[in-house]
Fold each of these.
Amino acid sequence: MHGTRNLQFTPRLRKAALGGVGVLTLAVLVAGCTSGNTSTTTSTSSGPATTQATDAPITVWVDADRAAAADAYKAAFPNDPITVETYDGGANGSGTFRTKMQLFDTAGSGWPDVVFSTQNNDASWASQGSNGNKPFAAVLNTGAIPDATISGFAKGALDPCTVDGKVYCLRNDLAQVVLWYNKTLMDQFGYTVPTTWEEYQALGEKVAKEHPGYIVGTQGDTFTSEIYMWSSKCEANHITGATSVTVKTDSTECKRMASLLDDLRTAGSSPNIGVFTPEFVSTYAGKVLMMPGPIWYSGAIFNNPSSLNVPAGQMAVAAPLPWKGEDAVTGDVGGATWFISSHSANPALAAKFVEFVTTNDAYQVDLAPGYPAFAAAADKWVAKQNSSGYYATPLDQAVAAGSLIWSGWGSGVFSQEAIWGKTMTTGVADGKTLVQLLPDWQKAIADQAQVDGYTVK
Amino acid sequence: MSIASYVFLAPYLVLMVVFGVMPGLYALYLSFTSRTGNGSFVAFQNFTKVLGDFRFMPAVQHVSLYLLFWLVALVVLVTFFALVVHGLGSRHLRTGLRLVYYLPGALAGASSVMLWLFVLDPTASPVSILIKAMGMASFVNVIVPSHLPVIFAIIAFWTGAGGWIVIMYGALNNISTEVMEAARIDGAGSLRLAWHIQIPMIRKWISYMAIISIAAGVQLFVEPQLLSQASNAIVPNDYSLNQLAYLYAFKQNDFHGSAAISILLLFVALSLSAIFVTRGGLFDKD
C-alpha cells in the first residue's frame, strides 16, 4: 500500500505505533494463554463420563423456540441443577448438532447432556460411533425411559429414532401431512373437498380455469418431496438398515405424483414457489384454496400475522388423500427430537428432563406450537385447538393422519431436502418437468448416499 | 532502526506461524495419513478419494468459471475506473468518488451477501424492474445454477473492487509527473497516455491485485454458503471446493479428505500466483 500516500513518520507517531504493536502482541499472548487454560478446565470438569453422580448438573441444548420447554421444566422443578444453552437446533440442514458433537468427540469432552434437534434424522448418525468413538446418543428403551412412556407415543412416532430395534431419541412433535383447505372459499366457489389425488388434480385444473390466481398447493419448497412423493409411496428414500438404502424413482408411484405436480404447475394452480418466501405471501395471501402440507402449517403459515394471516373460522383439515383404489398414507415434514448423551454424568436427571418435555401437559399441551408426538398429550392438544375457534371444522382428521405415515420413507443421514432443492427445484426453474427429472433425482440421491457410506440398491 | 523493523514484523510473523504455517503443515500431515490405524501413511489415497468424489469436478468447474468472470472484471474495470478517477479535474470529485468506491468494501463479507439476497429477490429488490425485464419472475429463477458464477462475481466485485481502485489510484499518483509531462509534450492524449505510460507503469500493482484475488477467489465459501441457506438449499451446499472441504470435515467427519482438498487448493493457488509473479514482474527491481 506504499502507493497510496507517503505517510511521514514523525517520532511521536512512531512511538505510538510501537506502543500499539507491543500491546497487540501482549494481547495475542494473553489470549493464547487464557484459551489454553479454559480448555484444560473444561476437560477436567466434564471429562470422565464414567463417573456418574445423582447431583451432577446437566447441560441442555435447545433452539430458541424450545427455551419455553426448558423454562417449563425449571418452573416445575426449580431445584434441579440445569444449565440451558441455545443453539440453532440444526435447522435448515445446518448440521450444527452433528458438527459440534464430532468436535467434542475429537476433543474427548464437552458434550451436552440433553440435545433438542429440529431434524428427525439425527438418530442415523448419533446411534453410530464415528472414527471409533462411542455413539453420542444413549439408548432409551432399555431402562433409561420407562416402557410405559415409550409405548405412549403415537404409532410410528419413534420410527425415525429407532435403529435396529433400539430407540435413540424421543419425538417432540409429529409433522404428518394433511390436506389443508379454506372452507369459506370452497363453499363460496361451490367446490367439494376432494377425497382422492385424482379428484384433487381435477379440481386443481378446474380452479385454474374458473378462478385464475387461486392455488391448490405449492411445490417450490425443499420438503416438496416429503409432502407429495412420500404420500404417493415413492420409494426414493427407503432406509433398510443403518447403512443401506433402496432408491427407486422410476416406479409408477413416483411418476404419477411427478406428473400430477407438472400438470398443476403448468395449469398455474401449484406454483414453484416456497411458502416461506416473501413472494409467496405477497402473491397468494387470501388465494390459498387448498394446500397439502404438514400439520405445523397452521401456526407457521395460516394463523401467522407475518405470513398468510387467514382469519379465524376459515381453515380446515381434510384427511390425507389416497390414490383411487388404494388406502391413504401420508408423509411427514420434520418433527423434532430430543436426545440424551451417552456421556452424561447424570443420565437419570437427563432422562427425567426429556420425559417431562416430551410428555408433560405443562409444556406439550399448554405451550407447544406443534402437534405432540406423545398420544395422550396430542389428544388434549387437539381439544385445546378445537376450542380455540380458529378452525372451521374439528381437527379430528389430523389425529387420524398421525398414524398413517408411510413407513417406506426413512430417515437417513443425508438430507433429502437438500437433494430435492438442488436437482428438482432448480431443474423446474430451468424449464424441465419433474417427470423428466426423476432419473436425475435418482442419481443425485444414490451419489449422496454413497458419499455418506450407504450401500445403495 | 533495524530493531524497530523486527518489532513491527514480529506480530505478523507470530500470527502467520500460528494461524498460517502450522495449520498448513498439519493439513499436509493429515492429507497423507489415514483416519483408521492411528494416522498411518497412505500416500495419495485421500487425494484419489476426493478427486473421485462425484461433487469434486462440478465444484472445480464452478470455481473456475467464477474466477474467470471475476478476475477479468477486476483487472479491466478496476484499472479503467482508477484511470478515470485519476484523470478527473476536480479534486473534490476525485476524493468523493474514491470514498464512494470504497464504501461497499467497508461491509464485512457475510453482511454484504445478506444485502445481495435482497437485491436478487425480485419481490424485494430495488432493481426488480431490471430483473423482471431479464425474464426472471422469482428468486428461484434468478439463482439457477447457470447464473451463479456471474452472481458471485458481481457480489465479489461490488465488495472488493473499491479498495483496489483506491490502491490503483495511489499507484497512478506514484508515476512521476515529469514522465507524464514529457509524454504530453510529445502529443499523447489521455488514451495513449493510459495505454503506453500509465498501465505499463502500474503493471506490478495489477498483478499484485490478481494474485491476492486468486488466493481469495479459489477459497469461495461465504457467498454460496449463505445463499444456500437463504434459498433453503436450492443453491447447493457443495457448490465450491471450500464448501466441499467443509462438508468433508464437519458432515462426514473426515478431516483427512478435507485436508487433501485444502492442499489441492493451496497447490492451485500457488501455481496460478507463480504465473502472475513471473509474468507481472512483481519482484523485479525497478
Amino acid sequence: MPEYTLYTPLKDDDITKLKAGDRVNINGTIFTARDAAHKKLVELIDKGEELPFDIRGQVIYYAGPAPAKPGYVIGPVGPTTSGRMDSLTVPLLEKGLKGMIGKGTRSDEIKKELMSHRAVYFAAVGGAAALLSRKVKKARVAAYPELGPEAVFELEVKDFPVFVVNDIYGNDLYQQGVSEYSRE
Amino acid sequence: MPNGGVVFIREINVTTVKNAVRDLCIEANCHLGDDTVSVLNNSVQREKSPTGREILGQIIENASIAHQEEIPMCQDTGFAVVFIEMGQEILLTGGNLVEAVNEGVREGYTKGFLRKSMVRDPIERVNTEDNTPAIVHIQIVPGQQIKIIAVPKGGGSENMSALKMLKPVEGVDGIIKFVTETVKNAGPNPCPPIVVGLGIGGTMEKAALMAKHALTRPLGQKSDDPGTAELEEKLVREINNLGIGPQGLGGSTTTLAVHIERFATHIACLPVAVNISCHAYRHKEIVI
C-alpha cells in the first residue's frame, strides 16, 4: 500500500499520483464543513458572491467537533457521513476544491465529477475522533460561528491520516476492498 | 403479601437520578467499556486485511486516548438514550423523573464537553444547545431499586437502521436475508465494525425497542436462550462474509456481535427491527 505525505493546497501532481487504497498523511490547512455550512457556501456561489476562504486546491473535512476542553486546541473531531453532502458538492468542485475527507460512499455522480474536476475523496477513520484531534495543531472558526459545531473551522493539521477512496481514474476503494474480502 | 399486606416504600429524590444520568453520559462517551476493548483487541488478531488491521489499531488507540484524557471517543456524542427500570416500591420525590433525566443530560453534556447534537424539531432543525431532550424508555419492574442505562447513540449508525414486517412464512431465512441486506446497504456509513441489535417479534414499536435494548447487553455476552445464541452466531458469520470490513474498506471484521431479543407476536406477524451501533459501543449503567 503506497504511502504519501501531502501538503495543502493540493497541486495537480499530487492528485495525479493518488490511487484508491493509498495511505496519505495530510499536512497544512484544511477546512471543516458539514450540511449546514455547505448550504451557506453554495448559496453564496449561486448569488455570485465570494466564499469566506480561498477554496482553490483546498481540502474540506466533513466534520463537526465536540467542544474543546480547556487547554485543548480542538475537541474530538472525526469524519461524518459524506453522502449527505453529495448534492452540495459540485459547485465547490467547480470553484477549485481538490479534496474531501469524510466517511462513507459517494454517489455515482460525484465519482464522475471527481474525474472531470481532477479531485480526490479521502476517508478518515470514523469514530477515531480523539486520535484525529491530536493531529490538529491550530484551529479557528473561519465562518458561520452561529452554526456552533457546524461552523467552518480552519484547521492546521500535521500528518492527518486518511485513505484514498475515490481517485481521478474512477477507482473506488469501497468496491475494491469489499470484493477482495467478500465470501458471499 | 409479606408483612401482613404492608409494603415498604423506598423514597428516592430525583436529584439522585439526575446526578447518575449526568455521570453516565460522561462515562459512556469517554470510557469505552472493557467488554468492547477486549472484543476489538481480539478482532485485530483475526482481521485479514492490512488496511483493516491499521483501522482497528487506530480505533483501539483512539479509545485509549479518550480514556486517559477523559475526552469523547467520537465527536458524535449521540442522542442521549436512557433506559430506566424502576422498582414499583419506590416513591420518587423532589420533582419529575423525565425532567430530572433531561437535567442530567444537560449537565453531563455541558460539564463533559460533549457535542450537542439535538435539534428541537425534525423539520425546523434548531439546535437545543444542551443535547436535550433525552430519549427515555421507562419500565416498571418489581422491587425497590432503579436501574439506569445510558446509551449515547450516534446519528450515522442510527440512520442505517431498518425495520420490516416480514411474512411469518419467511421465517429464519427471511430474517437472515433482511439483516444481511440492511448491513450490506449500510456499507461503510455506520462506521464498521458494527454491533447489530435485533428485535424479533411483538408489534412494530416493540421490535424497534427490543433492537435498541439489545445494544445495552455487554459485548461478547451471548443470549441466554440457546436457539437465539445460535442465530446470533450464524448472523455474525453471514455478516462477516460480506467483506465490508473495518470502515467499509474491505476485510473480515464487519460486525463485532449480533444481539437478539425476541418476544411473542401475532399469528399474522413477524416484525424484525435492525438497530445498528458503530464500533463505539457505548453503554454504561448503574443500579441505585
